[in-house]
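Inputs:
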Amino acid sequence: MALRTVGITKSFRGLEVLRGVDLTVAAGTLHSVIGPNGAGKTTLFNVLSGAIRPTSGRVEVRGRDVTGLAPHQLTRLGLSRSFQVTSVFPGLTVEENLAVAAMAGQPHDSGILRRPRWTGAVAARVEELLDQLGLTGMRRLEAGVLSHGDQRRLDLGLTLASEPSIILLDEPTAGMTRTEAHQTMGTLERVLGGRTIVLVEHDMDLVMRISARVSVLHRGILIADGPPEEVRENPEVREAYLVGVGRE
Ligand SMILES: Nc1ncnc2c1ncn2[C@@H]1O[C@H](COP(=O)(O)OP(=O)(O)OP(=O)(O)O)[C@@H](O)[C@H]1O
Ligand SMILES: [Mg+2]
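Outputs:
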C-alpha cells in the first residue's frame, strides 16, 4: 500500500469539506480522484501532502503514520505534488527551474544561503527531465515566456525532479488544449511507469482510459471507488455529476 487515509475529516470554520474519507492507493498504480467542483479534491491533496492538517483522521505512507508532517518531510519520504495553479518561477530559465527543484530533493540540501550546487546528479537529472518532457529546445528561455501548455509541462518537471515514488497531480492538464492534454498524459504514462500516481482530472475520457482505479468525491464524501468501468456505471456517480452540472 503506497498511500492510505483513514477517516479524514476537514472543516473550515465549521464547514465540513471532507467527511470521513477512506482512500487506499495501491503501489505502482494510477489512481484518479474525480468529483464536481468544490467536492474537496484539492483539500484532500492538501491533507495528503502535508499542506494542511486534517481535523481528524490519519494519513499513511507505506504503512507509516505521517499525519501532521510538513510538506518537505513528506518529500523526503518520496511524496511530491503539483498544484492546480502553475508554480514555476517565471524569471528563471526552464533549466534553472528544474535545477532548483532537483536540488530541493537532495538529501543534503546545501541551504538557501550557500551557492546551490548544480553539478553531478542535479545536472544529470535536469538533462533527463528536459529530454523526457520535450523541453530541451526551450531550456534557456525564461519560464514566464512559455506558452501555458509548456509552463504546465515544466510544472510537471518540478514535481518529478525529486524522483518521487508517490506523485499527486492536481489537474496537470488544466487550461491545456485537448491535444496538449492528451500529449501530456502520454508523456506522463511514459515517464511515470511503475510509480504511484494520484491524479485529479476533469477530462472523463482521459480518466477512464488511463486509471487503474477511480475514487469519486462528492461534497466531501467518497461515494464510489473501483475500476473505471465499474465507477462509470455507478448510478450515484451519475447522479452526482448531473447535480454538479446543474449547479454551475
Ligand atoms: N482554506 C479554506 N477555507 C475555507 N474554505 C475552503 C478552504 N479551502 C477550500 N475550501 C472550501 O472547500 C470546498 C472544497 O474545495 P476544494 O478546492 O477542495 O474543491 P475541489 O474539488 O478541488 O474543486 P475544483 O474542482 O473546483 O478544483 C469548497 O467549498 C471550498 O470553498
Ligand atoms: Mg481543486
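Remarks. The chain has a mean pLDDT of 89. The two ends are 37 Å apart (CA to CA).
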